């Protein structure tokens, strides 16, 4: 076809020590294309061009000689995914379809080496063509060595965040615009809690938000023209009536058939919606704290964390995340006197949370959790970058405060984080913090505020980021 044998170079559009990309013209059909010449021996070693042709349908041609690899790709001027999101106000159904399409595309990319994955999934390389996500495959490399660990799962979480909010994650701050179950999915992607894109897909399809797709499909199936169906059915009844010597139908008969058909259509639409609403009544995806109880007895409504989309309403089986971070032994490590208390009146997961009270309105810094990095459970976090997630709520709206993290080594603070937050009385607010731990002994977590109010903290998790 002349793509790598009979062409002219119009201009070089990108060049570094690893590659050179030229805009070319095929002399056999006058079509423009990009010729991506890979010069780096290490990248050539990592790049399987046969696999690239097999997985990516828009690769026009490839070639290889002793010290170079050639990849011909078409000139595509379609809009990028980020531009598409910014210029369109997507419905929930469109967001779900786009996320599904994104995950399917990233699953295909998973077969490549990490360095190639990073180039394929660059924001400039992800296009929206006829409402579907496609890869441009104009691969640009900025380094000649492979990445130490795959960032594909983290990257897909970042794109899901963009689909729902119109922005990438900034300094580990996950937007509150996300539906709660999608926010949980994004946090787990961004902290590499999933081992593969397939696991992300399974978690996404198990989410309550994904179930809306089924309702939407039921709506689409029900969106038919009842007049057309009645006309076809009328022909059937006409044939039967003619056999019985009847050729006329009264208006009442026609009206009854039409009415029956419309009632069936309405049932198709309403029943799935009712099922969805009832199924969500007991879910924590709404993230509303529940507070009930009288006198010395507290009656709590069990809320599950819906791990992997499973809803467990047995309180004794629910994960209690705060137990690993709050105990008398851990608190004694710090010699702090202003500490949180265990509370049963509201919770994010399990059946308890941590409660902080400020009765004076003075600035108060309260210890609510400790991570013992010398313990068997957490010693693997040493010399790593860790991500800590937690949820907070209050009994007043617009409560301003700060989540403070102090990394302690040899009784001295070696790393520190202070994040401002505004809490709500009706929703759990998500906080995500990244810390470099080194050879630290423990992490102390505080909440600081200066209002007469109570604060609940729950859903504490810590994972390795790097």
**Structure class:** alpha+beta
Shape: elongated
> What is the ordering of alpha helices and beta strands?
EEEHHEEHHHEEHHHHHHHEEEEEEEEE
Percent range for helical residues?
25-40%
CATH superfamily of the largest domain: Galactose-binding domain-like
Number of domains: 3
Largest sheet: 5 strands, antiparallel
Brief summary of the model shown:
By secondary structure, this protein is an alpha+beta fold. It is 31% helix and 26% strand.
Explain how this protein is built.
The chain has 466 residues and is α+β, with helices and mostly antiparallel strands. It has three domains: 7-74, Phosphorylase Kinase, domain 1; 81-213, Transferase(Phosphotransferase) domain 1 (Transferase(Phosphotransferase), domain 1); 320-464, Sandwich (Jelly Rolls). The chain contains twelve helices and 16 strands. β4 (61-64) and β5 form a beta hairpin. α4 (92-109) runs antiparallel to α6 (152-165) and α4 (92-109) packs antiparallel against α8. It is elongated and about 80 Å long.
């Amino acid at each position: 076809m002349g793509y790598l044998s009979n062409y002219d170079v119009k201009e070089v559009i990108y060049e570094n020590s690893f590659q050179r990309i030229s805009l070319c013209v095929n002399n056999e059909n006058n079509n423009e294309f990009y010729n991506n010449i890979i010069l780096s021996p290490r990248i050539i070693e990592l790049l399987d061009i046969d696999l690239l042709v097999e997985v990516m349908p828009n690769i026009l041609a490839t070639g290889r000689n002793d010290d170079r690899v050639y990849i011909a790709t078409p000139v595509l001027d379609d809009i990028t995914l980020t531009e598409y999101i910014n210029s369109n106000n997507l419905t929930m159904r469109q967001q779900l379809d786009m996320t599904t399409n994104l995950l399917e595309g990233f699953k295909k990319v998973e077969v490549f080496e990490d360095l190639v994955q990073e180039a394929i999934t660059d924001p400039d390389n992800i296009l929206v063509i006829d409402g579907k996500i496609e890869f441009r495959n104009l691969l640009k490399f900025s380094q000649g060595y492979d990445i130490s660990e795959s960032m594909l799962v983290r990257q897909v979480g970042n794109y899901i965040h963009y689909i729902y909010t119109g922005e990438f994650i900034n300094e580990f701050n996950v937007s509150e615009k996300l539906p709660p179950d999608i926010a949980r999915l994004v946090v787990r992607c961004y902290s590499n809690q999933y081992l593969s894109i397939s696991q992300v897909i399974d978690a996404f399809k198990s989410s309550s938000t994904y179930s809306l797709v089924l309702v939407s499909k039921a709506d689409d199936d029900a969106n038919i023209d009842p007049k057309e169906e009645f006309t076809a059915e009328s022909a059937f009844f006409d044939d039967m009536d003619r056999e019985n010597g009847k050729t006329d139908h009264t208006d009442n008969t026609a009206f009854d058939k039409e009415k029956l058909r419309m009632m069936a259509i309405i049932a198709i639409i309403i029943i799935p919606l009712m099922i969805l609403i009832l199924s969500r009544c007991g879910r924590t995806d709404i993230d509303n704290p529940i507070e009930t109880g009288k006198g010395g007895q507290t009656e709590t409504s069990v809320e599950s964390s819906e791990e992997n989309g499973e809803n467990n309403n047995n309180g004794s089986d629910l994960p209690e995340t705060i137990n690993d971070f709050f105990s008398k032994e851990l608190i004694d490590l710090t010699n702090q006197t202003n500490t949180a208390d265990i509370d049963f009146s509201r919770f994010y997961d399990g059946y308890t949370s941590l409660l902080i009270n400020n009765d004076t309105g003075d600035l108060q810094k309260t210890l609510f959790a400790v991570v013992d990095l010398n313990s068997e459970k957490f010693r693997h976090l040493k010399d790593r970058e860790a991500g800590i997630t937690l949820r907070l709520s209050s009994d007043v709206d617009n409560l301003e405060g700060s989540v403070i993290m102090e990394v302690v080594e040899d009784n001295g603070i070696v790393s520190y984080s202070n994040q401002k937050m505004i809490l709500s009385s009706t929703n759990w607010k998500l906080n995500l913090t990244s810390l470099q731990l080194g050879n630290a002994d423990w992490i102390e977590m505080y909440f600081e505020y200066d209002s007469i109010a109570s604060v609940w903290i729950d859903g504490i998790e810590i994972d390795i980021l790097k």
